[in-house]
Write a structure and sequence with these properties.
With 370 residues, the protein is mainly alpha-helical. The protein has a single domain, classed as Glycosyltransferase (Alpha/alpha barrel), CATH 1.50.10. The chain is built from 13 helices and 8 strands. The longest helix is centred in the middle third of the chain and has 21 residues. The chain is globular. The protein starts with 12 loop residues before the first helix and ends in a 17-residue tail after the last helix. The C terminus is likely disordered.
Length: 370
């Protein structure tokens, strides 16, 4: 397949309509969207897929995805980190960025549709979820990555997870404003988290090996707006040759010969957030050789062995493809949500900077991403 170079106003409808339909075919009657038929379900990837549905105009299916989430929310506001294909939870552990992502997805849906009644319907779900997340925020601003099976806080933080939550707090603030609730708690929490991400690296990976080898740790603070476009551009340039395989895409981890489509789509968004539109279009344009006849996309490509690996076609990869295509073409009202302009830190952030710092503790906990 020849490269597909997208420009503003030219959404590739013929190419990506089957991709929207693929996600919709995988969606269960309950509204849940598994990774693939008979695959597992997790809240974050379920919502990434729902965002792809909204971009494609499958609004009824997107609402069904929110309804499933509302039906499975626990009394404390969280969700189990994973479910089996039949919707049965497979772990009681809850992860903070998974729980927070409902705010991003619901605001994305609103920007696509301007459907305020649906926002009002699901705002209580989002509010409960964010209350659970904010209870995990430390005095220094970082947010713990999870509560374990016993309900105890897993007291360490992930750069990628917290960067994702940073965007979710921005969206929660916007949603609260839409429905007439107080947006201040979400804005204050986001400012505290931003200070931690930009200025307190010692708050992350305190008890396990650094996740810096993962490309998401490299680009997520850029695409979620934690960094200014100028700082984000410098961050991407500093490790570009570690993570980007020319002509193929973005590696999942720096030390493995494996490019993955979802990470490449997210790097496309980060490039757009830093004003590098041509480079973003070039990077995204080479992904469609890994598209199947029914519109799905393979997870990734191991370029030493020259094999597709794993042999899976995740719905969330399809969702990431649609998000990147929309951002490049600016076809929906949500196109700039993940590439929006950085908001300069408010003066009130100074009071968060004055808090004492805590040094790293010994590496004793098992990594959640190992």
């Amino acid at each position: 397949m020849s490269r597909v170079l997208l420009t503003q106003g030219q959404f590739p409808e013929a190419l990506l309509r089957p991709t929207v339909k693929y996600i919709a075919r995988c969606q269960l009657s309950s509204g849940a969207i598994p990774w693939f038929p008979e695959g597992k379900i997790d809240p974050w990837d379920h919502l990434e897929s729902a965002m792809g549905l909204a971009i494609g105009g499958a609004f009824e299916e997107a609402r069904a995805a929110f309804a499933w989430l509302a039906a499975t929310q626990r009394a404390d506001g969280s969700w189990p980190a994973t479910f089996a294909s039949d919707g049965t939870p497979t772990t009681p552990r809850a992860e903070s960025n998974f729980v927070a992502y409902c705010a991003t997805a619901l605001y994305h849906y609103f920007l696509c549709t301007k459907d305020l009644p649906t926002v009002e319907r699901f705002w209580p779900m989002v509010q409960r979820a964010l209350n659970w997340v904010l209870a995990l925020q430390s005095p220094e601003g970082d947010i713990a990555w999870a509560r374990d099976e016993a309900g105890a806080v897993c007291d360490d933080a992930l750069v990628t997870g917290c960067a994702s939550i940073f965007k979710s707090l921005e969206c929660a603030e916007a949603l609260a404003t839409l429905v007439g609730d107080d947006p201040a708690p979400y804005g204050v929490a986001q400012k505290r988290l931003g200070v931690a991400l930009r200025e307190r690296p010692e708050r992350f990976d305190r008890t396990w090996e650094s996740k810096a080898r993962f490309s998401m740790d490299w680009f997520y603070p850029v695409l979620t707006g934690v960094l200014s476009p100028e700082a984000g551009k410098a961050r991407l340039a500093a490790r570009w040759h570690e993570f980007v395989e020319p002509g193929l895409g973005c590696r999942c981890v720096a030390d493995q010969p494996w490019v993955t489509l979802a990470e490449t789509c997210e790097l496309t968004l980060a490039l757009l957030a830093t004003g590098q539109r041509h480079r973003a279009a070039e990077l995204f344009g080479g992904l469609h050789d890994w598209r199947t006849a029914d519109g799905a996309y393979w997870t990734g490509y191991q370029f030493v062995e020259k094999v597709l690996w794993p042999e899976e076609q995740p719905t969330w990869t399809a969702g990431a493809i649609l998000l990147a295509a929309d951002a490049l073409t600016e076809s929906t009202g949500a196109a700039r949500l993940l590439t929006g302009a950085f908001q300069a830190p408010a003066l009130e952030e100074d009071r968060f900077r004055s808090m004492p710092r805590v040094s790293k503790s010994p590496r004793t906990s098992k990594s959640p991403l190992s």
